[in-house]
From TrEMBL, chain C:
Keyword Flavoprotein recorded: yes
Classification via Pfam families: CO_deh_flav_C (PF03450), FAD_binding_5 (PF00941)
Protein name per its UniProtKB record: Periplasmic aromatic aldehyde oxidoreductase, FAD binding subunit YagS
Gene Ontology molecular function: FAD binding; oxidoreductase activity
Protein source organism: uncultured Craurococcus sp
Gene3D superfamilies per the UniProt record, alphabetical: 3.30.465.10, CO dehydrogenase flavoprotein, C-terminal domain, Uridine Diphospho-n-acetylenolpyruvylglucosamine Reductase, domain 2
Domain FAD-binding PCMH-type residue range list: 1-222
């Protein structure tokens, strides 16, 4: 059984924060009562099915609309010819966070899997077959599918607003002065988020008012985008997203198919449900772009890095910009007097890539951690020792101190738990009782501690209970629980005395649930709202001669267990209910905002860190690999709920294993179609792939990131893990595979 | 074409008129019987989210034609708890944090119930992992799932042991 | 999925008569057929549901010690049938290495024989595929064909048969019982599936409307029970189709191989029995050298059909592995990870 490692030692902010509570939405989820978007069925609802393009580039020249219409149960066919008008062109791009969509604006096709029509039917069966009967005809042009196709250019920025080139020191001089050098090219494939819940929407119009059930990691952005596209007021849009069946970035922004569901509802004047088929999730809802990364490293005779050069070739779509920011990890992870990262890109006939769990960090980390391992081997050093030798005491590219960095403790605790000591330096030295090759690898995990902007509202009610409202999104990370814990503490109440409301666009904007920033952003907003409500309540009491808190002004008061107490004499106090009753108030409200402190950001580099140790077993002749044991130790500031954080780390670590060993889209270079657009052949790990995981929650106090000291845990687990597994495969076999996922034939020595 | 079938769903016998033989058991449950706890993740037998018990055996309801299951007994996630008391597998899933987003969870739980009934895995975690490998979890809750299945299996075995003693 | 007529016959004769109508397809569990219909790969006009047809779901002992397995017996029921697993452990191991527990609970013996290839170009209606649409061409030939056939393929088709179950079955000389309008006939499984040649759309010897009613394993095949294994290389630990696989069944006498039955999976459009390799082993002492010679003989005719030359050597190696494991003796209980190279073999030395 896994222990909730570290939970006892974590600081408690109040009575709820730090507790390993079970999920507050757990009972709903295990009984099937949790309602996901596609579980809704308003009266009169019709079903919509997408028809998507099978070519990657060209034009649709014909659709057999009559055949579809003639199918029993088909109500309407939406094509560019009859699609309801929009107030904005779907290709208008007001900011880098607005992505172009395919909303039947014309007959052009720019990627395989692009929606080209929507069929609406009385039943799902009718709509689905109607879509199949459209039998599109095309004028196709050659698809551009590879990283060497077309014109190579330097994107003005990568990720969201990150520079495409960072230069620190003189890399050529560093390499020239090095005693040992390595140069390696790592390749990562296109990957698709594949949340278990396909994108879905149930949309209903009442006049110009729009009611929607759809999974969203960013309710306010979704609402604003829809308002802009349809030219309606945000107040007239209601989005319910109480549960997401996974998001991983693909539900961060509203995607084209969801808008098509709204358009379909408008066309037929009835509520419509549109759910993507699994294969339709390999096109219009984002993916992680492929990369080819060239790393050149040098080290001096003592194993100190003298230079890191990291060049990333990636790809965006032909019509929009998202460039996988894979160089980012190199800016922060290892000390080196010279670090240069550069990016260039090509445009391919694919859907636009999008942030996918640890965007940039995951791809960059597996390459950097491999190269660091190669450098360690070239120096004849243990890879952990080499990483410690090059430990970054300050952020290498900026020189800023870290707001906190317990990475040494992560290395130490992880290595001890894993049993790293005694690892043979040379590869292909260990076998198990069955003769399988055994290898051990390490990788360093890192992810920036980000915050977006969010607001919250807190209310204390006459009966002494509280309400906290925030439009937060729970895609599985545990917002319903962790944010409720923060809410309870912010109001000085037990968690069962606080009604926590989230997952609805009518609530205060919580910012996007992404960037591992949601708990910090929403948590700080809640923290502020609760403090505001308590302050207002205290003002009431302190100004009231009948209150035992009267005149406590300078000494101040403390809120605890539904009571306000004098800080200088805790025997003097009264309940919230008493204060409100005497004031004749039904409730008192507070507001709070969560956002990054720009001053702190100016002075400190803020990142979570971790160390992941992996054991793999490899069949020497057949090349089959299993990641038999992973130990991750992570330091990410204050932990709100260690049970849920442990689960986040596990999930991230499994994504790391998947990156190294399993998942890749297989794209036919001629057609541009993903040939394994399903869950049978696009392999994500199954239960049997992960026999043993441990996550250690390393204590870290960060006084700078935010008042709660929260960093973020959702994505860091992917980083480090992928490299650790790949490095373990090398240690097991002596074969350094630089193309992911690692293929059986490569480790079996049979790659062509 | 109209086809009438009878199904016992969560112990309730139902007569169902089907206007379309294409309706899968999954779509019947979700779109026509308002039993939306059973989820559609892939619709092609590749993820396990739609797992229900048919005549006591776990199957993928997406690859079962409803009309072909005339007379069958179907148990879905909604029928598992005894009133307000969660089934031991449900309780163990909460305790072991055996899910995150919860979307695959009804399928995982029904699969776990099926696995325990099959009785082939015993208390061997490796056999449980193999036996639960037909249920994908993209959040990566596998560790908790395996622990939960083993714990629930022990709890379910306890009354039998008492009887035997 | 297209609309179809749904027929639920009450007898085999009714079923065969109903399926004689062109465009008909038999529905057993539907785990493959419904998948294909949802993908638009198959669009049968009529489904003849075998759910109510009696006499197809029994596992019967035969006088010669063999077993007759009804076509509608579920994969899991067969694999866990004690009498079956004891006599034919490699077949049970193959069954349990296929698909998932849910699919094995539904999928039938007959359906397993008749499952279609996993070739992505077959599954993708926008791709050219001679199997799906005779004469259309083969997009796999110059496409993403890393996992395609290395034996018995043709310019018209390089797809493989995805079954695990059929691999040890063909090795053990299983016989397929077929019912048609002209009556009953039987065909050795080895002759049941056809190689693609110029007609890859014809995957078996079944005439239109013919029904597989049973598979028979002869009693003599149980003589291999002490030394019978199936091994399957996969790209994840479970729930994946084979890259390559092998069944090895040996009869040892006085420390020598009296008889060997060997077959490969994932290499051709049919489960690929390798008589030349069986002949190499006859009378040989079990050991690495003999096994490697057998593997060389088994793959002597192999040719890459694309970017898949590595599969030839992998197939040799997995046959050697299966032989090594079989020679060591069938375990009392199947490993926790059936057929997996990563399963614990409790001390059998597998790797040089």
């Amino acid at each position: 059984m896994a222990e909730l490692a570290g939970s006892a030692t974590h600081l408690r902010h109040g009575s709820s924060i730090g507790q390993p509570l079970t999920r507050r939405d757990g009972l709903l989820k295990v009984t099937g009562q949790a309602r996901y978007a596609a579980d809704n069925h308003p009266p009169g609802m019709l079903h919509a099915a997408l028809a998507v393009s099978s070519i990657a580039r060209g034009r649709v020249t014909g659709l057999d609309v009559e055949a579809a219409r003639a199918h029993p149960g088909v109500v309407a066919v939406m094509t560019p010819a009859n699609r309801p008008a929009l107030a904005l062109h779907p290709d208008d791009k007001a900011s880098p966070f607005v992505f172009r969509m395919d909303l039947l604006q014309d007959d052009m096709v720019r990627y395989a899997g692009q929606p080209i029509a929507v069929v609406i039917g009385e039943t799902l069966e009718a709509a689905t077959e109607g879509a199949a009967l459209l039998a599109p005809r095309y004028a196709a042009e050659p698809a551009r599918t590879g990283l060497d196709e077309g014109e190579v250019f330097i994107p003005p920025m990568v990720g969201i607003g990150a520079p495409s080139e960072v230069r620190h020191g003189d890399v050529e001089a560093g390499l020239a002065a090095a005693a040992a050098r390595i140069e390696a090219v790592y390749e990562t494939p296109a990957q698709y988020h594949n949340a278990m819940e396909p994108h879905a929407i149930v949309a209903a119009w009442e006049g110009d008012r729009l009611s929607i059930d759809t999974p969203s990691q960013g309710l306010t952005w979704a609402r604003d985008r829809i308002a802009g596209l349809f030219g309606i007021a945000v107040e007239d849009i209601e989005i319910r997203s109480p549960f997401l069946g996974g998001g991983f970035g693909s539900k961060g922004l509203i995607a084209g198919p969801q808008v098509l569901g709204i358009l379909a509802a408008r066309l037929v004047g009835r509520p419509v449900k549109l759910v993507l088929r699994r294969e339709q999730m390999y096109g219009p809802v984002g993916h992680r772009a492929p990369t080819r990364q060239t790393l050149r490293l040098g080290a001096d005779a003592a194993g100190g890095l003298t230079a890191i050069q990291h060049h990333v070739r990636t790809a965006s779509s032909s019509f929009d910009d998202f460039f996988e920011p894979a160089g980012g990890v190199t800016h922060t992870l290892y000390a080196s007097p010279a670090i240069v990262t550069t990016s260039d890109a090509v445009r391919l006939d694919t859907g636009t890539p999008m942030f996918m769990r640890a965007p940039g960090e995951a791809s960059g980390s597996i390459a950097l951690e491999g190269a660091i391992d190669e450098m360690a081997a070239a120096c004849g050093m243990d890879p952990l020792e080499f990483r410690l030798r090059n430990y970054a005491e300050v952020e290498p590219t900026t020189g800023k101190p870290f707001s906190s960095k317990a990475l040494r403790e992560c290395y130490a605790q992880g290595a001890a738990r894993f049993g790293w000591a005694g690892r043979p330096l040379a590869p292909r030295q260990m076998r198990d009782a069955d003769g399988l090759l055994v290898g051990w690898g390490v990788g360093t995990a890192t992810f920036p501690a980000l915050m977006f902007q969010g607001q919250a509202r807190a209310v204390l009610r006459a009966d002494g209970s509280g309400v906290v409202e925030i439009g937060a999104q729970d895609m599985g990370q545990g917002a319903w629980t962790a944010l409720a814990q923060i809410a309870a503490d912010s109001l000085g109440l037990g968690i069962d005395q606080v009604e926590f409301r989230a997952g609805h666009s009518g609530l205060p904007d919580a910012g996007i649930a992404g960037g591992s920033a949601h708990t910090a952003t929403a948590g700080m907003a809640i923290h502020g709202a609760g403090a505001d409500a308590i302050a207002r309540l205290a003002e009431l009491a302190m100004a009231d001669g009948r209150s035992p808190l009267f005149g406590a002004g300078n000494a101040g008061v403390v809120a605890r267990e539904g009571r306000l107490l004098r800080r200088d004499d805790e025997s003097r106090g009264e309940t919230y209910a008493e204060i409100l009753a005497r004031a004749g108030l039904g409730e008192i409200e507070g507001r709070g905002t969560g956002a990054m402190d720009p001053a702190a950001q100016e002075h400190y580099a803020m990142h979570a860190h971790g160390a992941v140790f992996a054991e793999v077993k490899v069949d020497p002749e057949l090349g089959q690999i299993r990641a038999t044991r992973l130990v991750g130790a992570f330091a990410a500031g204050r932990i709100i709920n260690p049970r849920m954080v442990q689960s986040q780390y596990y999930g991230g670590m499994i994504w790391g294993v998947s990156f190294a060993l399993h998942e890749a889209a297989v794209v036919d270079p001629r057609s541009g179609r993903v040939m394994n657009a399903n869950l049978g052949e696009y392999h994500v790990p199954v239960n049997a792939d992960l026999p043993s995981l441990e996550a250690i929650l390393v204590e870290e106090v960060d006084p700078h990131v935010n008042a709660l000291g929260i960093k973020g845990v959702g994505e860091i687990g992917v980083t480090g893990s992928a490299g650790a597994v790949a490095n373990a495969v090398w240690h097991a076999t002596g074969v350094r595979v630089r193309r992911f996922p690692i293929a059986v034939e490569a480790v079996a020595g049979l790659a062509g | 074409m109209s086809l009438s079938i009878t199904l016992t769903v969560n112990a309730v016998p139902r007569t169902i008129a089907l206007d379309d033989p294409r309706v899968t058991l999954l779509d019947l449950l979700r779109e026509r019987l308002d039993l939306t706890g059973t989820k559609k993740g892939c619709d092609r037998g590749q993820c396990g989210a739609c797992t229900v018990l048919v005549d006591g055996r776990r199957v993928n309801s997406c690859l079962a034609l409803a009309v072909s299951h005339d007379g069958a007994e179907v148990l879905t996630i909604e029928g598992l708890a005894e009133g307000e008391t969660p089934h031991p597998v449900q309780a163990a899933f909460i305790e072991h944090d055996a899910f995150q987003c919860g979307f695959c969870t009804p399928g995982q739980i029904m699969s776990a119930v099926g696995l325990i009934r099959e009785g082939q895995a015993g208390d061997d975690p490796e056999r449980v992992r193999e036996g639960m490998s037909g249920n994908l979890c993209r959040c990566g809750a596998y560790q908790g799932i395996t622990e939960a299945v083993l714990q629930a299996q022990r709890r379910l075995a306890e009354p039998e042991q008492e009887q035997a003693a | 999925m297209n609309r179809f007529d749904y027929i639920r016959p009450a007898t085999v004769a009714e079923a065969v008569a109903a399926a004689a109508v062109p465009g008909s397809a038999y529905l057993a569990a539907g785990t493959n057929l419904l998948d294909l219909m949802k993908g638009g790969v198959m669009r049968p006009a009529r489904l003849v549901d075998l759910a109510r047809v009696p006499g197809l779901d029994a596992i019967e002992a035969l006088p010669d010690g063999g077993l007759r397995i009804g076509a509608r017996v579920r994969n899991a029921d067969l694999a866990y049938d004690p009498g079956f697993a004891r006599r034919f452990p490699a077949v049970a191991e193959a069954l349990l290495s296929g698909a998932s527990a849910q699919l094995r609970n539904a999928a039938t013996v007959g359906g397993n024989l008749l499952q279609r290839t996993r070739c992505a170009y077959f599954y993708d209606p926008a791709s050219a595929c001679n199997k799906r649409e005779p004469g259309a061409g083969c997009d796999a030939r110059e496409g993403e064909n890393r996992l395609h056939a290395v034996l018995g393929w043709s310019e018209q088709c390089i797809a493989t048969h995805p079954s695990d179950f059929c691999v040890p079955l063909v090795a053990l000389g299983a016989v397929v019982e077929i019912e048609g309008q002209a009556g009953r006939r039987e065909v050795p499984l080895e002759e049941f599936h056809r190689l693609p040649g110029t007609t890859p759309e014809r995957e078996s010897v079944l005439a239109p409307g013919e029904l597989v009613v049973a598979v028979r394993l002869p009693g003599e095949a149980a003589g291999f029970a002490g030394h019978a294994r199936y091994v399957k290389l996969r790209e994840r630990t479970s729930y994946a189709f084979a890259v390559v696989s092998a069944a090895a069944c040996l009869r040892l006498e006085d420390g020598a191989i009296a008889e060997a039955r060997l077959a490969l999976g994932g290499v051709a459009a049919k489960p690929w029995r390798v008589p030349a390799a069986e002949a190499v082993l006859q009378g040989a002492r079990p050991g690495a050298e003999a096994f490697r010679q057998a593997a060389e003989a088994a793959l002597a005719e192999a040719q890459p059909s694309g970017e898949n030359g590595f599969k030839i050597e992998l197939a040799r190696r997995i046959l050697v592995r299966a032989l090594t494991l079989a020679a060591a003796g069938t375990p009392e209980r199947l490993p926790a990870l059936p057929a997996s190279p990563l399963a614990s073999h409790s001390g059998v030395s597998l790797h040089g």
